[in-house]
Amino acid sequence: MNASRDSRSTRPRLTRRRVLAAGLVGAGSAVLAACGTDTSGRYSDQGFVAGDGVTREIPPADRGEPLAFSGTAYDGTTVDLADLRGSVVVLNVWYASCAPCRKEAPELAAIANDYADQGVRFLGINVRDEAGPAQAFERTFAIPYPSLPDLDAQIMYALRGQVAPNAVPSTLLLDTEGRPAARISGAADPSTLRAMIDTVVAE
Predict the structure, then answer these.
(1) Fewest CB atoms within 10 A around its CB: which of 9, 41, 90, 118?
(2) Whole-Å CA distances, 145 to 54, 79, 81, 119
(3) Residue ranges, the chain, pLDDT below 50
(4) Phi, psi of 70 (to 5 degrees)
(5) Which of 159, 24, 165, 45 is nearest to 91 (CA)?
């Protein structure tokens, strides 16, 4: 009799837990369904989206309007994208604790140095960091180009339709008119980026 009473007393408690767990799973599934494609597997513990290496090159006839934004770099330099017209520009979206960003940084620095004589300009867009960690990153990897902080996402808004707001790192290549010509979502493969730059420089 006591065993039967104990069994009855514990059964509702287990049932409530199971119902609660099922409800949470159902709610999570509904959220993922509402968002469209389930990209949860792409997120690391640090919150960045794992690079998938997706690339796109845009023929000149299909390019949209020139991009426009400005800001003050971590070193105090004012940068206006309009002032870079006439040069091929490589924009790289990053932040200091992003592991793929750290992985690609030495190659980006090398490519920026290699193409400087051809007038190719590089510009970083940092979506998370204050000056301290951002400049430490730049020193660590000897980054030769400036980066603009974008903690309020104003620049990312200007890049809407070209760079996904949660796709970090991303690299966007602009032609001499300031129009998006190619992009890489995720860590940039150096040979791919060099080939993209060569194509746009040769236009």
Answers:
(1) 41
(2) 24, 11, 14, 13
(3) 1-51
(4) -150, 165
(5) 159
Q: 170: closest CA among 68, 56, 66?
A: 56
Q: Which two tokens stand for residue 76?
A: 């105090």
pLDDT of residue 2: 47
The 10s digit of each residue's pLDDT in 117-157 is 999 999 999 999 999 999 999 999 999 999 999 999 999 99
Give the relative orientation of helices 190-201 and 99-115 as an angle to the nearest 10 degrees. Answer: 40
